[in-house]
């Protein structure tokens, strides 16, 4: 969606765009849930994940709560299931034992809710109320469903059995990308006050002053990470933080999740298929502790969240922060690997059109990038429309990830978008790039 909708276009245009986003998002949900049989839908493929059928009904329940009941003021469709699909009341490990809606009933529920939402969309006034201005509540629901679609894609990656998802390979490299980029010292505007669908943790916009630093021009690749493994990086506590080394020993970390030795190299299981690890792809399925250890071994560190965002948004020619590395235009297939278009990260150099003005590549899409920053609210943060979206996660437990992955939709990914997870998590599509401080004599090169 563009930065201003109702001010620069009429309500009918906004309705049309929202309807298209709702339809496109639901098509992805149905693809992920109809690719398997009902037995797979109700099975829990990992204690880290919900059964797919729980996610299916949960997105419908959130749509009912916020759009049908709150925005529309309509009678509930199924108020008897609210507790079953409350993510805070029902831990993932316990969800298979709940009396969940069976697949056919869940699909019928989603269809009924969506019919009422379309009726509401035809009538709603996009007035100054914050929940409906610029279609915010509809955008929030689109993003929520797309986030669960990525979660369901991660569940498919953990699922045992033959491959059921198919997609063409990503493009081959179109540019040579290597080394580091110097980001000069100075302020930049972090966060946003203008993006109509930005969520509460992306707000408010605020100025951040940063010293000069170097950041990798591309994410760390499989080939570079294999060097870390070969050098004994997993066996040397010098490179690991205290909690990282403790976790590495407790669970026996020795390589990225889904890797196994394959002759003189490695193979990687991807959605039911085994492939040889490709050296020029960004490494994926590593936890924060692994990323941090690699960075220490390489003589670097992970970037802070502010450093990541400045590299992704700051335009040195104008001094302004753009919506994406390439500008303010919506991402296309030439800019980034998003939206499950491909079921793997693209090789480094595949998206030169998506590079930032400083020459930093593949900041959006491919892999979520771990940062060194704990998840907190920005100065002046205000929870909206409910504390449970962001505020309850603030603290010392969660690390921030940025940039989105090949499984993230463009509606839920922009230069300001913030993700977070426990530092031990590897089932997500997570990788990283490194940074380092610039010495005084390097700061003005």
Report on this model:
Pathway: Amino-acid biosynthesis; ergothioneine biosynthesis. It holds the Pfam family DinB_2. Fe cation binds at residues 58, 144, 148. The chain has 445 residues and is α+β, with helices and mostly antiparallel strands. It has two domains: 11-158, Four Helix Bundle (Hemerythrin (Met), subunit A), CATH 1.20.120; 169-445, paralog of FGE (formylglycine-generating enzyme) (Alpha-Beta Complex). The protein has helices spanning 11-34, 38-42, 52-71, 103-123, 136-158, 222-230, 242-251, 288-297, 305-313; strands at residues 180-183, 186-190, 206-210, 213-216, 259-262, 265-270, 273-276, 368-374, 399-402, 419-421, 430-431, 435-437. The strands form four sheets. Strands 10-9-8-11 form a four-stranded mixed β-sheet. Strands 1-4-12 form a three-stranded antiparallel β-sheet, covered by helices on one side. Strand 5 and strand 6 form a beta hairpin. Helix 1 (11-34) packs parallel to helix 5, helix 3 (52-71) packs antiparallel against helix 5 (136-158) and helix 7 (242-251) crosses helix 8. It is globular. Residues 1-6 have low confidence and may be disordered.
């Amino acid at each position: 969606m563009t930065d201003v909708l109702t001010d620069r276009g009429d309500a009918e245009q906004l309705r049309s765009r929202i309807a298209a986003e709702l339809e496109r998002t639901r098509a992805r949900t149905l693809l992920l849930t109809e690719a398997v049989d009902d037995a797979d839908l109700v099975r829990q493929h990992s204690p880290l994940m919900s059964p797919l059928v729980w996610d299916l009904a949960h997105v419908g329940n959130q749509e009912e709560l916020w759009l049908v009941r709150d925005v529309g003021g309509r009678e509930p469709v199924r108020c008897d299931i609210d507790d079953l699909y409350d993510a805070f009341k029902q831990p993932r490990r316990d969800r298979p034992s709940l009396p969940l809606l069976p697949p056919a009933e869940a699909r019928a529920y989603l269809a009924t809710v969506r019919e009422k939402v379309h009726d509401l969309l035809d009538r709603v006034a996009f007035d100054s109320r914050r929940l409906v201005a610029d279609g915010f509540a509809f955008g929030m629901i689109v993003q929520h469903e797309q986030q669960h679609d990525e979660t369901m894609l991660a569940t498919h990656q953990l699922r045992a059995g033959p491959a059921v998802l198919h997609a063409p390979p990503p493009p081959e490299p179109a540019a040579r990308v290597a080394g580091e980029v110097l980001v000069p010292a100075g302020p930049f505007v972090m966060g946003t006050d203008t993006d109509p669908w930005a969520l509460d943790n992306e707000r408010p916009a605020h100025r951040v002053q940063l010293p000069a630093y170097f950041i990798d021009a591309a994410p760390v690749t499989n080939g570079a990470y294999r060097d870390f493994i070969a050098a004994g990086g997993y066996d040397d506590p010098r490179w690991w933080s205290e909690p990282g080394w403790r976790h590495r020993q407790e669970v026996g970390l020795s390589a990225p999740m889904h890797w196994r030795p394959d002759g003189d190299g490695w193979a990687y299981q991807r959605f039911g298929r085994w492939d040889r690890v490709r050296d020029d792809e960004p490494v994926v399925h590593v936890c924060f502790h692994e990323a941090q250890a690699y960075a220490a071994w390489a003589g670097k560190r992970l970037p802070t969240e502010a450093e990541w965002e400045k590299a992704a948004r700051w335009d040195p020619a104008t001094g302004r922060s753009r919506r994406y590395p390439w500008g303010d235009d919506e991402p296309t297939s030439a800019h980034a690997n998003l939206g499950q278009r491909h079921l793997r990260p693209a090789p480094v150099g595949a998206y030169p059109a998506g590079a930032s003005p400083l020459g930093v590549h593949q900041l959006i899409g491919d892999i979520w990038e771990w940062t060194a920053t704990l998840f907190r609210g920005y100065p002046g943060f205000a929870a909206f429309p409910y504390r449970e979206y962001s505020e309850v996660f603030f603290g010392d437990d969660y690390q921030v990830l940025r940039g989105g992955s090949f499984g993230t939709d463009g509606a839920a990914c922009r230069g300001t978008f913030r993700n977070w997870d426990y530092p031990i998590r590897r089932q997500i599509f997570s990788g990283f790039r490194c940074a380092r401080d610039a010495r005084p004599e390097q700061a003005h090169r």
